[in-house]
Amino acid sequence: MASVNNYITYAQSLQYEPQSLYLEGGQAGRICVELKELGSKRILIISKSSNLTGKNIADFIHKLEEAGFRIFNYNIKFNYSSSSDITGALNEYLGYNCDTIVVLGGAEEVFCAKKVSAMAVNNMKDPVEAEGYGKIKKDISLLCCVSMDNSTAISSNIAEFRDEKSGRWVTVMSEYLVPQI
User: In terms of Cα–Cα distance, which of 73, 129, 76 is closest to 107?
Assistant: First the structure.
């Protein structure tokens, strides 16, 4: 497993887009400022409903609301990243005319949110369209990840999900799959 210092060095060395890292507790206010600077107004939060019950998460969402953001929620239904959750969250994102996604969770939630962001920015209709390497052509700068585990899903350039139509696992790789915040 890579150390925190290696991840920080890696993330800071990315060339295509600067990345903001908030590694200490109580950083919701700083994230709100950065989201405002990016022009965010309508935020879709992607998470499992069980992640939204803690006081820290409730406080974070309250900070977003206090900062004037409109908040919408998509609750992930499976215990893994799935094409149906990706499609469902994308439909909510587009239906509510959101401009930003904040994901709260671990690897499954992060992979789902990466795919939703990539599909929204790259005008894709089917999650499988981006299978393999290099099919995502635009940065997923509309994504903010708040990790709730110690996985490397946020810092990796991949997203994996299970395609319900075919029953197989699909991997998407792109240098654009590393979120900005």
Answer: 76
